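Re-run requested by the PI after the first attempt was lost when the workstation crashed. Everything re-entered from the original request form. Ligand of interest: MGD.
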Amino acid sequence: MSAPRSTATALRICPLCEATCGLTLTIEGTQVTGARGDRDDVFSQGFICPKGAAFGEVDSDPDRLKSPLVRKDGILQEATWAEAFDTIAARIRPLVEEHGPNAVGLVLGNPNVHTMAGALYPPLLIGALRTRNLFTASTLDQMPKHVSSGLLFGDPFAVPVPDLDRTAHLLMLGANPLESNGSLCTAPDFPGRLKALRKRGGTLTVVDPRRTRTARLADRHLAIRPGADALFLAALTHTLFDENLTDLGGLAGLVEGVEEVREAVREFTPEAVAAACDLDPTTIRTVARELAAAPSAAVYGRIGSSTVAHGTLASWLVDVLNVLTGNLDRPGGALFPLSATVPAPRPAGPGKGFALGRWTSRVSGHPEAKGELPMAALAEEIETEGEGRVRALITIAGNPVLSAPDGRRLDAALDALDFMVALDPYLNETTRHADVVLPPPPPSQSAHFDFAFNGFAVRNQARFTPAAVPLEEGRMDECEIHARLILAVSGMHGAPPSAVDDLAIDTTLAKAVTQEHSPAHGADPRAFAASLGGTTGPERRLDLMLRLGPYGLTLDALREQPHGIDLGPLRPRLPQLLKTRSGRVELLPAPLAADLPRLRAALHARPDALVLVGRRHLRSNNSWLHNAPSLNGGSNRCTLQVHPEDADRLGLADGKPARITAEGGALEAEVEITDAVRSGVVSLPHGWGHDRPGTRLGVAAARPGVNVNQLLDGSRLDPLSGTAVLNGFPVQVSPLL
Ligand SMILES: Nc1nc2c(c(=O)[nH]1)N[C@H]1C(S)=C(S)[C@@H](COP(=O)(O)OP(=O)(O)OC[C@H]3O[C@@H](n4cnc5c(=O)[nH]c(N)nc54)[C@H](O)[C@@H]3O)O[C@H]1N2
Ligand SMILES: Nc1nc2c(c(=O)[nH]1)N[C@H]1C(S)=C(S)[C@@H](COP(=O)(O)OP(=O)(O)OC[C@H]3O[C@@H](n4cnc5c(=O)[nH]c(N)nc54)[C@H](O)[C@@H]3O)O[C@H]1N2
Ligand code: SF4
Ligand SMILES: [Mo]
């Protein structure tokens, strides 16, 4: 007879999307058997979605790897942690010594922003590798926003978020928070907050080629032609100037380049953009007037306005509109969050500015952005012979074979590597190519703090949840895996992992004690380090960041408030946060001005007859949640949505297969006829295509779907940010007979 299992509860911040809801987990023995919203959470106040409710199932997925895998005789086999790190040290160092640091490429995927390890260690790994071959999910996502923020404000992380709870008017482009739960706008219960906006008399305009669940909640839905947002936003800007509707309010002395923007958008009249956007000029003028007239308003753009040909221009114009209507940095407008772990603010003044293109990629000459090269260029950097070729690759929490353009080509490239390491819980489409797989423990066994998302949250707050259950025997904490990986690649294999954290703490403190605005100014670094709370390296680092942060918090203070500490609504932060050379908001930075002729050319381009856009489903998350049975029941989700008129024209029948062809290849998918997509547009979700051999994803493989990114060949990029065009590219569709 086995001993009776005890039932307990534990708090855990949900890592499954950007909303960061507080969950109360039910734990039997060491297994999570249930999850509900934590009603006392200072931020999420009990909200939970179906993904959070499935936390236990995701956590205990039997397909999660339990021990490291090392390739022996061509086959991935279970191995000890010691063997895994020995192999990495033995294989990576000689490559670096012979071919230089760029011989090792690094891929960082999305879940890194959902773990403490993913926030704390990759910067150190990048420093240790000194490689320029850095590729992340940002160039499949929000890099355009980093670039526009870098240029406008001097800081690529200074991303204004809409003040959801106080705004009187929200203009949302290319986002569908009722399915995604929000992005670059961390807001538990985004749907509830939008409903509250309507209830208090506010208005919502949604710009999306699909009539999404979010669009259905709006006062106005504009079914724009995909890829045309920058033109639409330029016409709104034009109208503000044309009708004397600009009013910078309190920003007036803080902005330069306003007159230059007026000139730059002169040509983009509502009439001039109407055909490309497929919106009538009167509507465009009305939207501009509403924006100007609202007591407060925020313009907010996400994926559908970012992963497009003019993604950086669109991201820039979003904030140009926020500035010109006086809504940037004021309550009810778009504000900059202030998270508890950023260094305490320095005094306002000129900064170093933001440079783009400090180096270029080896094969195609793509300019770097924020130190990164386009993910879409990874395959060619592996395939193409010569000095600086990527010979070894480390992937951390990324599945680019499905999430980036042309997975088949990348598959072949990964096969051609000399050596590959994957830090990932699953053997999937990407990690199956690795020589060493390092599996992190399931989330219940990891502590959590949101380093990334607190910087994009609609309310300042800080929450820490310790591991809900102890590390299972044979497991290694993800932070320790990272630390050991850093040691293995930097010639310090075998040193204690705490050395990595100590070095990080020492480096941070050495700088902080010299800075007058730092809470550590003038302190003895050793004594300060010795006073840090926390029992592990990452906890001590969190404690340090909190102590050096703007609120003077400590890890102990967070532990005493397990439901979190509310730090209040967002507050104005200008001019302090500006790091531009002028010390002001630079409204028309030169690289953006130089990209405008490309937008002008788009005014006259003939629209493609049929273009494809993506979509998200509430129960999914990119490529890795298709293995949880309760999130994957019901009808097929990987369908090609087609408007009835297009279906008629193309001879497509509902429920029948169609062939979709584009520059990267051809796919077959089931047709779903619906007028929720506008005519001229078809929609297929991403993250599917789980039919490759050598993976261990039993549930996902049974309903694999197709990989939409196989339609792309990686050549379509937003040039300023290197971001792949994943929305609004031309396709041909025909019935499959
Ligand atoms: N066509 C099209 N393509 C897209 C998009 C789109 O809208 N359309 N969206 C893009 C966007 S926005 C993004 S962010 C990317 C995402 O693409 P990726 O960054 O590749 O992320 P995922 O597909 O979510 O894969 C996540 C990987 O992390 C692993 N993982 C899960 N949890 C953990 C963990 O705790 N630790 C570690 N180490 N690993 C973990 C999973 O097993 C999986 O291998 O996809 C992009 N691709
Ligand atoms: N359920 C679920 N939640 C997720 C994810 C997930 O995969 N599933 N992924 C997470 C990640 S990594 C991210 S980055 C966020 C993304 O969060 P969101 O930005 O909200 O992403 P989507 O839900 O894909 O919404 C994008 C919308 O843009 C529209 N669109 C496409 N092309 C255009 C265009 O040219 N112009 C305009 N105006 N609209 C266009 C699409 O129809 C779609 O409705 O979601 C996160 N949350
Ligand atoms: S909304 Fe996001 S954070 Fe909240 S429970 Fe759902 S998946 Fe988790
Ligand atoms: Mo993303």
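Saved to the shared folder this time. The chain is about 30% helix and 15% strand.
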